[in-house]
């Protein structure tokens, strides 16, 4: 059987606000169900009154053509389908139903080489047509993924970023605590009078291990001085480097070596924090330089410092509370302690703006007096 060519003109696609008949697209007269990988059948009536996500994997158009038209019973295509489907908890149209897949392709089209996701409500109204990266950005916080919900979420993040406090940043309607590595729940309100470091724990092993050790050293020394300082681990598992390589077991193994607190594994608030602090910044796919980050939040939101990691690595414990103001203070003190004779040659002749000459020794003596 000769493979048919997909007619791009037939790919009408849909936009937000359009109405589609999902029942006609997903089911047929001879098939009133979708399948799960374990073989279970999910009947059509179970989709009534539900919001449905239609995911289209557009990574390889030739692969999509094979899915639609390959007539062979057991091919590499089927093996690929089973491998991908085995990782997914949701339903799918059976691979053998080429007619339904062709109808879906003609109706929804291909949006992006990275895949497309269409969100459709129980009445068949298309709420959103988004690429996979947008879905990754919001996660479950974006549900039901209407434009109104996503705009509201962005506004909420901007409001928190303008006036951040530990409670606004870390709490949710379902959770008002962070956890210790023994499983204890620590109320978030107990952190409000402390300087809190939000530790975005990234996938770059070398950089992250170095920051962890410096942070551990500062944490222990500040604790000895009874300084009100706390760290909250934000264990990232959905960034380009960490996705697929981290799980709940690795979370507990990592967290178990740390003396501070953490957000629960895969807590939805992690998505919001990544939006607020634009993490990871300027990441290029395939780049290994996904750097961990420390955001320092002052007591009751008095200040917020997004460059805490750089300040800690450069100034260590004396840099506490790891703000740019403290770094500037330390640099000013360092410059004042420099002997100007280390900078200037005392027998060098300098020229003023007006053209007159002055010996560098005279300049040295003038500024030495001004620093006393």
TrEMBL record:
<dbReference type="Pfam" id="PF13905">
    <property type="entry name" value="Thioredoxin_8"/>
</dbReference>
<keyword id="KW-0560">Oxidoreductase</keyword>
<dbReference type="GO" id="GO:0047134">
    <property type="term" value="F:protein-disulfide reductase [NAD(P)H] activity"/>
</dbReference>
<dbReference type="InterPro" id="IPR036249">
    <property type="entry name" value="Thioredoxin-like_sf"/>
</dbReference>
<dbReference type="InterPro" id="IPR012336">
    <property type="entry name" value="Thioredoxin-like_fold"/>
</dbReference>
<keyword id="KW-0520">NAD</keyword>
<dbReference type="InterPro" id="IPR052259">
    <property type="entry name" value="Nucleoredoxin-like"/>
</dbReference>
<protein>
    <recommendedName>
        <fullName>protein-disulfide reductase</fullName>
        <ecNumber>1.8.1.8</ecNumber>
    </recommendedName>
</protein>
<keyword id="KW-0677">Repeat</keyword>
<feature type="domain" description="Thioredoxin-like fold">
    <location>
        <begin position="193"/>
        <end position="302"/>
    </location>
</feature>
